[in-house]
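F.,

This is the one I mentioned.
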């Protein structure tokens, strides 16, 4: 009996407690979570706060009642009163890499090294060769005068043998030939008179009087050791041999005129 009364009073008490119902928002919003689940329902303001807090993004799919399907948050921000940040500018294109520098082939490196080594060698060779060439050219000019004087020495010796005295003559390259004491002297003196390296020719007597002397002055070498210098020959009347002497450097003389 008492148990039945207690049960009825408990039921009456529960009937008097009001039931609290949670009101759904007029437009309930949902968003997708990274786990693939659905977050919500929530109001539009709650959705905006999640976006501003960085918990959802403009690419996060959202949906609300009345929409046909899920759509990125960026497509509904205008209706939510939220402005999405402008898209980032495109990345600056990378500057093109410069073309690789072409390296010298090893053959060119070897050639350059040889060329660099050849320059001082060429300078040394030139320093040796040029003076040697000039000496050779000058010696050839002196030898040419000596060869041209040979007929004159023969004519002088012949005249001394015929007359018993050495002929005495003197000619200058820039003057006319004088009268000659012997016709035998005319041809060799004319040849020497016209020679480009002969400045003057003198024939005279030595000691004794039959020791004839032939002296030839030099010119046209354009060298101080040769121009205005002289070649001389002295006749030995005993054996008829000529002895050569000169005021010219030995290197410019042939071997038979260096003693």
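My design for it:
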């Amino acid at each position: 009996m008492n148990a039945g009364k207690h049960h009825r009073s408990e039921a009456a008490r529960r009937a008097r407690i009001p039931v609290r119902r949670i009101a759904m928002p007029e437009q309930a919003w949902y968003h997708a979570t990274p786990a693939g689940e659905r977050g919500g329902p929530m109001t539009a303001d709650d959705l905006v706060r999640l976006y501003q807090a960085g918990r959802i993004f403009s690419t996060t799919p959202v949906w609300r009642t009345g929409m046909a399907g899920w759509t990125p948050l960026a497509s509904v921000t205008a209706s939510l009163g939220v402005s999405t940040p402008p898209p980032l500018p495109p990345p600056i294109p990378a500057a093109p890499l410069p073309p690789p520098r072409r390296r010298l082939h090893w053959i060119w490196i070897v050639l350059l090294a040889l060329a660099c080594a050849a320059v001082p060698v060429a300078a040394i060779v030139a320093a040796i060769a040029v003076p040697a060439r000039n000496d050779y050219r000058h010696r050839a000019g002196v030898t040419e005068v000596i060869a041209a004087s040979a007929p004159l020495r023969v004519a002088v010796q012949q005249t001394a043998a015929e007359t018993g005295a050495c002929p005495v003559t003197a000619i200058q390259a820039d003057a006319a030939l004088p009268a000659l004491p012997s016709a035998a002297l005319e041809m060799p003196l004319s040849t020497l008179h016209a020679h480009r390296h002969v400045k003057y020719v003198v024939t005279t007597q030595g000691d004794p009087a039959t020791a004839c002397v032939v002296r030839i002055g030099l010119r046209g070498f354009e060298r101080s050791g040769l121009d205005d210098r002289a070649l001389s020959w002295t006749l030995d009347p005993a054996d008829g041999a000529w002895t050569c002497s000169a005021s010219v450097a030995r290197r410019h003389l042939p071997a038979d005129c260096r003693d």
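Residues 25-85 form a domain with the Dna Ligase; domain 1 fold (CATH 3.30.1490.40).

Talk soon.
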